[in-house]
Write a structure and sequence with these properties.
Shape: elongated
Number of strands: 0
Radius of gyration: 21 Å
Helix content: 40-55%
Order of helices and strands: HH
Distance between the termini: 42 Å
Number of domains: 1
Number of helices: 2
Strand content: under 5%
Length: 45
C-alpha cells in the first residue's frame, strides 16, 4: 500500500495524496421506487 502511494506521488505529485470527490448518489422519487418494487414482485425469476 505504501509503495503504491509513493509511486503515485512520484507520478502525480500532491494531487495523489487526496482522494477524488465522491459522486452524489441520485435517488429516485418514492413513487417510482415503489412501482419498480411492485413490478419486480409481479415478475419473479
Amino acid at each position: 500500500m505504501l509503495y503504491r502511494k509513493i509511486a503515485a506521488f512520484r507520478k502525480e505529485g500532491m494531487v495523489s495524496l487526496f482522494s477524488p470527490p465522491k459522486a452524489k448518489r441520485r435517488v429516485l422519487p418514492l413513487a417510482i421506487r415503489r412501482k419498480i418494487v411492485d413490478l419486480k414482485a409481479g415478475h419473479p425469476r
